[in-house]
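Comment thread on ticket #2218

A.B. wrote:
> Attaching the input chain for the structure job we discussed in standup.
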Amino acid sequence: MSNASIRFSGNIIEELSKNIPSSLFALNELIKNAYDAFSPDVTIKISPSNNTITISDHGNGMAEDEINSLFHISKSSKSYGHEIEQNGVKRLTQGSKGLGFLSAFKFGDKVEWKTCKNGVRSTFSVCKSELISKDDVAGTKIPLTTDLHSENGTIITVFTSKSEIEELLIDLDVEDGKSIEKLAATIIDDSFNIKIEIENQKKITSTEKLKKFDKESEENQLFYVKYDPSKNEVDFYHKGEHIKSFPFTLGRTDYSISLELIIFHFNRGKNSRSISPLNRRVHDEALYPLIYINRNLFNNTVIFDPELLRKKSSGETLPQMIGRVNLTSKSKEIEFNSDRTNFVENSLTKKLIKDLEDLNKLIQTKGAELKKQLRKSKGVPTGKAIPSLGADTDEQKNRTASIIIDKNRPLTFYIPSDQIYLEEYLFQIKNSSGQIVEKNEVDILIDGHKSSNRVLLSIEEPCEKKISFKYIDDLTDLVSKEITLSFERQISPISGKTLDKSLFTIQSGSGYCVKIEIVSDIINAIDNAYSSKSREDYLPLIACSIRSIFEISSDKIIKARKQWFSKFDHSKLSITTKREVKDKLLLNVVNVILLLKKNPDLINEVANVSGINFSTLANLLDVESFKSSVKTSHIGAHQSIRYLSKPKIESCADTCGLFSVICDVLMNVNSANAAASSINKVDESDLDKYLSS
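C.D. wrote:
> Ran it. Output below, let me know if you need it in another format.
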């Protein structure tokens, strides 16, 4: 008989409470140990009659030196995420924190191990209560008995109680099947099977018996979507045929994302009830894809949320999706919180989450566009989406070659426009054999001149551009399509009422209705005065009213979002700045504008809600323009009535109108989002930078 020594890197009770938060988490840790031991399977048996739980595998087993390392918590020789190979089988290392030992104690006080390696079987047991009772467990000896045995592997037996067994069965949700199926799906690897057996239950749940996600509700499948990072393309399939690909490139090279999804459309009279519990979220029954990190199930329903675009109309989203999203990385920056439900935030995980969000948005928005094109009078056609293995694609009948333009791409733009990647107008190109043609084989001409970079540069003046797409088919020769892109000025009123013409406009085609009622009323009153024949007589009144809009809007946003704004120490300001900010309104207006300039997320929020192009809005945030408009509106203090003119008032009104929209949007930001926002506040140095010149 020999002994193994326990060496803890911290208090055992603290480790148990922090790192083993749930039964499913604990079982996952034990499953990962079997996987890392290159076992072809692991079996979890729950026996209420004798109050035991056994976890058995046919892996490599442990020799005496490995048993000693088992008891060294938070230290492991394994390198997480690294690929290792044994007898032609490749696996990504799962364990890295040495939590397997503690995980077994989640279910009971006494745990026994029987582990065999190279013909020698070692047996030992540990009681948690005995360890907890010791002031210092370091160096505690655990007796090992050995005998000869022919089959490698490990059997862990946990001696538990009736109440703990009942709690485990509740956690596994045996009747409903959600949690127990997710446990069987813990590892995504065809070389590994997880089996869960419960005494007196006829049904045995295992990885091999789980229904394949691409077999779910085949008659209601709309798309099969696949992303392969080596191709940098998202491929869409409908009824087994590839219909479109979209480019997508990951932001970093120290991780990889691949995915396979099934997206459903349930026509009238159909629903998702037939889809298995494995593909539903526990808390709300919604469909969602499972997330795997280095082949291990990640208990997170947020980072690839099908309801990401829920604020948009249903016609622009595709939330009914299931599938598998696989993340792989061996970077040490991949770390998790204690219950493994989220990442520890750092530069890598932030970028990884952003890539997942962008990939999700692309799939839903592009998929929604494809769905609109497929729609027929009787609904959207559905059917088995994934292409059949071995499908005969060689015997294709000759037909006419075609270039199909994406009808959902805009043909009218407002100036100044962004650059336009013209290849996006190509929905599908097929040759005369019915095969998909790559977009790069199509020539693109702008007003008759071939475009080498396939980009239409920004347009700043109203005009039209003729865009031609030409492709030479091997059998039928030239195929050509032409579209006309129009560019025009974008101006719309922001008043609360519809007028033929408003003094207050923004550079957006959608218009904007100000929700601050008193501001909306003042805008309407000014528009009525300005539309009269004697408008010149009203200029002083209009100027004062514009100042009121500045005052009301700035007061309301600073009070509503006071956590975003700092109180300034005027002693730190330059002499010139002190002189400028004697006008409290000017200070408040400049404070709001500088806040936006320092926080691109806020600019994006205003742009999304108001319809103003992001870059256009960023360019409009010119502090000098807002200063000038505030001063123009201040009759008496800054200027005499005789200096007011129609052009000055119109310029002032446009700036004031934009300011009221900015304040209105930011006041109506979701309160939870506003509180959670990480805001860069304006400080004295910012004021000096923009007001001291």
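A.B. wrote:
> Thanks. Noting for the ticket: Residues 494-691 form one domain.
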